[in-house]
From TrEMBL:
Name listed for the protein in its UniProt record: Phage family integrase/recombinase protein
One example of a Gene Ontology biological process annotation: DNA integration
GO molecular function: DNA binding
Organism: Corynebacterium callunae DSM 20147
Keywords: DNA recombination
Pfam families associated with the record: Phage_integrase (PF00589)
InterPro entries: DNA_brk_join_enz, Integrase-like_cat_sf, Integrase_catalytic, Tyrosine_recombinase_XerCD
Residues of the Tyr recombinase domain: 40-206
Region feature Disordered, mapped onto this chain: 26-49
C-alpha cells in the first residue's frame, strides 16, 4: 500500500541521513524519488454500524471500539492504556494521558460511562487490556478484535475517522483542535480523516436543464 511504502521510504532516508553524518560518506538516499500517495476520502464508520457491533460482544471489545470512536485513540494507544494514565474528575468525567507516536503525549477528557468501563476492566490497577506483549495486548490484536466486531468494511481506523468527523462538525469546525485530539503532527493528515458536513446537493445544482 502507498502508506506502507512511504513509511519504508521515510525510514530509509532517516537511516542514511544519520549514517552519512556519522561516517563522513555521501548520503545515497538523496537520490531516492518520492512516493506518490493518493489521498483517499475520509471513511468515518457510521454510528449505526457501531451500535450494531456493540450489541453482542464482550465488554473488553466494546471498550476498544468506544475508545477509538469516542476518544480517538489508535490501536497502539489502546493496547498500552494503563490505570496510571487515568485522572478522575469531580463531575464523573475523567481524563486520560495518551502515549502517542514518537513519545508524544496528549490528555483528553473521558465521559463518565467510558471511565466506568475502563475501571471495570482493571479493578486492581495495571494495564486495562492485559496480554503477553510486555504485559498488555499488541496493537495488531486490538485492531483484529475491532475488525471482528464491526461489519466487514469498517475497521478500528475508520472509528478514528468517525471521531475526527464528529469532533469537527460538533466542535465549531476547529480543525486544529481535532488535530491535537488525534495526535497528528501534520494538519494535512487530519484533513484526510475529517469528512465535511456540507450537503453537496447545495453546490451540485441543475441550472442548465
Amino acid at each position: 500500500m502507498p502508506e506502507t511504502r512511504n513509511a519504508y521510504h521515510a525510514s530509509i532516508r532517516t537511516f542514511f541521513r544519520w549514517y552519512s553524518q556519522h561516517s563522513d560518506t555521501e548520503n545515497p538516499a538523496t537520490s531516492l524519488g518520492s512516493v506518490r500517495r493518493p489521498t483517499p476520502p475520509p471513511r468515518p464508520a457510521p454510528d449505526d454500524a457501531i451500535k450494531d457491533a456493540i450489541i453482542d460482544i464482550s465488554e473488553r471489545t466494546c471498550l476498544i471500539l468506544l475508545l477509538a470512536a469516542e476518544i480517538g485513540m489508535r490501536a497502539a494507544e489502546i493496547a498500552q492504556l494503563h490505570s496510571n494514565d487515568l485522572l478522575q474528575g469531580s463531575d464523573g468525567w475523567g481524563k486520560v494521558v495518551i502515549h502517542g507516536k514518537g513519545g508524544r503525549q496528549r490528555i483528553l477528557p473521558v465521559p463518565p460511562g467510558i471511565m466506568k468501563m475502563i475501571k471495570q476492566q482493571a479493578p486492581d490497577g495495571g494495564y486495562i487490556f492485559p496480554g503477553k506483549l510486555n504485559g498488555h495486548l499488541s496493537a495488531p490484536w486490538v485492531g483484529k478484535l475491532a475488525s471482528r466486531a464491526l461489519p466487514s468494511i469498517w475497521t478500528l481506523h475508520t472509528l478514528r475517522h468517525r471521531f475526527a468527523t464528529t469532533g469537527y462538525q460538533q466542535g465549531g469546525r476547529d480543525l486544529i483542535a481535532v488535530q491535537k485530539a488525534l495526535g497528528h503532527e501534520s494538519i494535512e493528515t487530519t484533513k484526510r480523516y475529517t469528512a465535511s458536513s456540507l450537503d453537496l446537493k447545495a453546490i451540485v445544482t441543475t441550472t442548465i436543464l
